[in-house]
Amino acid sequence: MLAYILNLATLICINAVLAITLNFIMGYAGIFSIAHAIFFGVGAYTAAYFALHVNASIFLVIPVAMVVAGLLSLVLALPALRVRGEYFVAASLGLQVLGVTVFSEWKSVTGGLGGMIGIPPADLFGHAVTDPVQFLLLALCCLFPVLGLTTWLLRSSFGRNLKAIRDSESAAHAFGKNVAFIKTMSVVISAALAAVAGSLYAFYMGFINVESFMLDTSVLLMAMVIIGGTGTLLGPLVGTILLMLLPGVFSYMSFLPQTEIGSIQQIAYGLAMVLLMIYRPGGIVGSSKGKAA
User: Fold this and answer.
1) Residue 2 Cα distances to 9, 21, 203, angstroms
2) CA distance 229 to 224
3) Close Cβ partners of 77 (under 8 Å, ≥ 6 residues apart)
4) 114 φψ region: left (φ > 0), alpha (ψ -120 to 50), beta (else)
5) What is the per-residue pLDDT for 223?
6) Interval 193-248: pLDDT, tens
7) In degrees rounded to 5, what are phi and psi of residue 122?
8) Which contiguous run of DSSP H or E holds residue 129?
9) CA 202, CA 272: separation in Å to the nearest integer?
């Protein structure tokens, strides 16, 4: 039981980082991306490759993964500067499909469909982090700085500019805001911080393949943000905890067919999002009128 709780808590921390970083662009910049799993994957594959071939030090792996994901995020930032709304969602979907294809076919780097195995444990000051409790503490030590950094950014002038762009890009431009630079930086920051979660995931699992970075993951992350409360500081955390606990709750319901648990989860996610959009558009933490913070 303790092993299950530690595993669940660690995965909650990793997914919370992803939800927080997606909310950074979705809730505050108004950039609705369904390609967030790709930057999660870029961070994981970069961390795994670097750890296998260079060094497993957490202080080297995570910065390298962040830089790679941040640079690649410019591919997403370019359409964000030109299109909005449903057109950008379509563009991000294209990036999601492209990313999954690269992960699957670039066998010399990603291992293809077979994935990457034998990833060494994270090295922290010469100590291999293999104990589940120690890894949970490491995950928390990554989650809190990410939460703190995004909170600080959102409460700064940069965050106010993001909200201005979200509310009215034309008005923000008219007031002299450098809309292109602000949107680009928000995407780069979001992707780079998502790579932190990817690095943790690679070290924690010791094995990664493309199955963890599919469209389903991006949709689940979006559900975490929307259900918790888009454009709120605590919403992504609440949404992550609820959606990560839900599978465990269903698995303990003996009257449900165990072979259909996955489908039942998807139905529950969809139903929760529909009901929230009707009765509480702002999510659990957000305003009942759907106004973002």
Assistant:
1) 10, 29, 20
2) 8
3) 183, 184, 187, 188
4) alpha
5) 87
6) 999 999 999 999 999 999 999 998 998 899 899 888 888 888 899 999 988 887 77
7) -60, 135
8) strand 127-129
9) 30
The pLDDT score that the predictor gives to residue 178 is 80
The pTM of this model reads 0.89
Amino acid at position 201, single letter: Y
Encoded tokens for 32: 């609705």
Give dist(CA 264, CA 85) in Å, integer: 30
In the three-class reduction of DSSP (H, G, I as helix; E, B as strand; rest coil), residue 183 is classed as: helix
> Whole-angstrom Cα distance, residue 257 to residue 253?
9
Q: Which helix (H) or strand (E) holds 124?
A: strand 122-124
Half-sphere exposure of 283 (CA within 13 A, CB side): 27
Instruction: With beta carbons less than 8 A apart as the criterion, state whether 39 and 188 touch.
Output: no
Q: 116 Cβ partners below 8 Å, 6+ apart? A: 45, 48, 49, 52, 110, 202, 207, 208, 209
Cα–Cα distance between 227 and 239 in angstroms, integer?
Answer: 5
Q: Which residues pair with residue 127 across a beta bridge?
A: 124
What is the Cα–Cα distance from 236 to 150, expressed in whole angstroms? 12
Distance CA(76)–CA(222), nearest Å, equals 17
pLDDT at residue number 83: 64
Give the residue carrying structure tokens 């067919």.
257
The residue behind tokens 């750890």 is 51
> Rg of the chain over CA atoms, in angstroms?
19
Task: Provide the 3-class DSSP secondary structure of residue 158.
Answer: helix
Q: Which two tokens stand for residue 177?
A: 């805001």
Helical (H) or strand (E) element with 292: none
Q: With a cut of 70, list the residues of the chain below it in pLDDT.
A: 80-81, 83-85, 250-262, 286-293
